[in-house]
Amino acid sequence: MKILRLAPPFFVSFLYPLILNAQEPTVTQDDATITYPASYFEQYNLLSVSDMLDRIPGINVARQGNLNSSSGPGSSQGSDRRGLGLGGDQVLINGRRITGKENEGNSQLSRIPANQVERIEIIRGTSGDLDVRGATQVINIVLLEAQSRSSLAYEINTDHYHDGKIKPGLKLSLSGRSGNFDYLISGETEPRWEYRKGYEESILANGKPNDTVSRKQITDQQPTVFSTNLGYQFSDNDIAHFNLQYNENDAPFTQERVITNLLTSPAIKDLQFENINNNSDFWEAGGDYEHTFQSGSRWKNLFILNRKEDDRLRERFDRNTDNVKNLFLETYNKYEEKIFRTSYSTDLNLTQDLELGIERAQTTLNSNLKLGLLTGGSESNRFGGLTAVNDSNANVEEIRYEAFAVHNWIINSSMSLESTLIIEESTITQSGDVIQERDFDFVRPKLDYRFDITPTLQFRATIEKDVAQLSFNDFTANTPPSNDDDQNTFAGNPDIRQEQSWRYDINLEYRFNNDNGVINTNLFYHDLEDLIDRINVSTPTVIQSANGNIGKGKRYGGSVDTSLRLNTLNLPQLLITSRVELVDSSVRDPFLDINRPLQWNGKGIYQYGFRYDMSGRNINYGLNISGSFDGDQMIYDIDKIEDYYRDDFIIAFLEVQGWGGLIYRFEATNIHEQYRCRIRSRYVNGTIASGRLDEIEDSCSHAGEKYAIKIRGTF
């Protein structure tokens, strides 16, 4: 299958900066903050904060951070991070971090109307006044301070898919202020329909055709999200917030397979049908209370409670034998987290401040798995009328205590150093199939140094010890993450430990004159320990693997991000963005005993696109393309090796402000159908090291193009 690749325009990253002459932009010298007042955006007639950010050069750097250096093995970033963390979301609302892991500031950007915004700040320095520490840049959305304001934003959309299916969507958000009370209430339902067609060819080791598989998969998913963010200012010194989010993300799934056996003459076709009921619910509640003393010191308390439940039932039927059921696989996972934190911040002098705090987190997982097969053994109603093959359950609980100290030192007008020390202790208790208790302790230092060489050129260097949160699903038997028709479940590993990493990062950012753009370069190196990968847990009768710790490794690379407004070419409304990231890695494979890249590491990614605003005509349009460099998208398992590759992801859009002041947006996604492919090599009579190659499967699939019409407005 031919894969479409659109080579990234490297001239965007390296040529245009050469034709721009640098001058000092308007940057406040005390905290290196770039401010965009609401008047900056008046020419665009925008509706939401997300629209406003899209017009700021360099916002791609601020919104994504150094993804290559902050993600990957040993990392505790994202909504699955260890506890609340000092980092997290890099978006603040009125200087405050929304207390949540799923319900954070970044998720609110499309819900806050533009007419509620006083200014947007891009904070490039460090400060004890920030609720987020150690972020490359922080976006602060400052809302109007009017005693009374209110705005209702809405979006109606219709998506048309390549199989002719039409699905509607709706978003509503009410935001405002009444006296000392701030509120943001929103709800949305968004279609995620997918009709995926795929084809697979299997060839035996001797080159003889084995079989073919034709697939048709339908996922009827329409997530519904309700969230609310409330704040109340009791006095000049006391403020409290409460946040709530509820997600319903059911994803019923059906699949039809036609397997053609080419080893017989004539070829024999086996028709299979699968039905998967997948019910998923999530809720999260968070809140905080902050008191500011007359001295300026702050005392802050916060909590987060969340719970996610996934109930999945997969059944397979053989159409050739009157729809006889031959597979029953039921899994249930309930994941809960409770986090409480208190901290005290104070200024030591005019140039130094200190924050001390304690956090307690309780994380639990209740998991059950039932696997039934048509083996001719005794039948059970608990296993869908089939023979019980696997009946496992696990209860996992981690109680973790964390003490932290953050010292911020403004060395001079150009340099700052932020030092962090985290000491944590935790106990993991398991019951069910395995009963045991284990204790862990970690010391996690971090240094963040920043040097404003000039008001336009900033250097940043960080050194950090990080510890990743364990996936408790790895403790017990569960469903495999990849689609493999020959593997229904994979084994658990109750002895798995947390991944750890030392992360070294240097960053250089340059801002051009007159808001012309930003170029940001980054280099990173990760020294990894207790890497989690597939290990051998075979029994005398069964060859099988599970996730486990395989030892040390390394990951390194760099990236260049650019965002340029072409004033020099008399195209001030044309904003071009690009990102090029190159990555490499190395680890010792536990099966082959060779050095190889990390699982899914890849060689890097590229992203580029443009947005052109025709302000006089109230029209804007653009194109965004993203892809990955081929190679090293590999999975090594005990009896198979998989190599993945895919087309570029493409989205084009056109927006017009028309009747009633509404915004009409047309989107075209993946008009080239975006194939994703996999080559899988299977081994028998042993592992990939000791067995023999049995067959090679070459498969590709695509979900087709999607067209959408969206209508947005505010009251």
Report what the structure shows.
The chain has 715 residues and is an all-beta fold. The chain has four domains: 1-12 and 480-715, no CATH class; 31-145, TonB-dependent receptor, plug domain (Ferric Hydroxamate Uptake Protein, Chain A, domain 1, Beta Complex), CATH 2.170.130.10; 153-260 and 272-317, no CATH class; 348-466, no CATH class. It has four helices and 36 strands. A hairpin with a 6-residue loop joins strand 26 and strand 27 (595-596). The longest helix has 6 residues, at 49-54. The radius of gyration is 27 Å and the shape is globular. The two termini are 50 Å apart. Residues 7-30 have low confidence and may be disordered.
List keywords for this structure.
single chain; 715 residues; mainly beta; 4 domains; 22-stranded antiparallel beta barrel; four-stranded mixed sheet; 36 strands; 59% strand; globular
Tell me the span between the first and last alpha carbons. 50 Å
* Number of helices, counting only DSSP H or I runs of 4 residues or more: 4
Structural class: mainly beta
Low-confidence blocks of residues: 7-30
Indicate how many domains the architecture comprises. 4
What's the count of strands?
36
Spatial extent as radius of gyration: 27 Å
* Overall mean pLDDT: 87
Helix content: under 10%
Question: Biggest sheet: strands, sense, closure?
Answer: 22 strands, antiparallel, barrel
Strand content: over 45%
Shape: globular
Helix-strand blueprint:
Elements lengths: L9 H5 L18 E5 L11 H6 L4 H6 L2 H4 L20 E3 L23 E7 L14 E6 L4 E14 L4 E13 L2 E9 L4 E11 L4 E11 L4 E12 L2 E11 L4 E9 L6 E25 L5 E21 L5 E24 L4 E22 L13 E24 L4 E18 L3 E19 L2 E11 L32 E12 L5 E13 L2 E5 L8 E5 L3 E14 L4 E18 L6 E2 L7 E11 L4 E10 L5 E3 L3 E7 L2 E9 L5 E7 L6 E9 L7 E11 L3 E9 L1
Parallel strand pairs: 2-4
Antiparallel strand pairs: 1-3, 3-4, 5-6, 5-36, 6-7, 7-10, 8-9, 8-35, 9-12, 10-11, 11-13, 12-13, 13-14, 14-15, 15-16, 16-17, 17-18, 18-19, 19-20, 20-21, 21-22, 22-25, 23-24, 25-26, 26-27, 26-28, 28-29, 29-32, 30-31, 31-34, 32-33, 33-36, 34-35
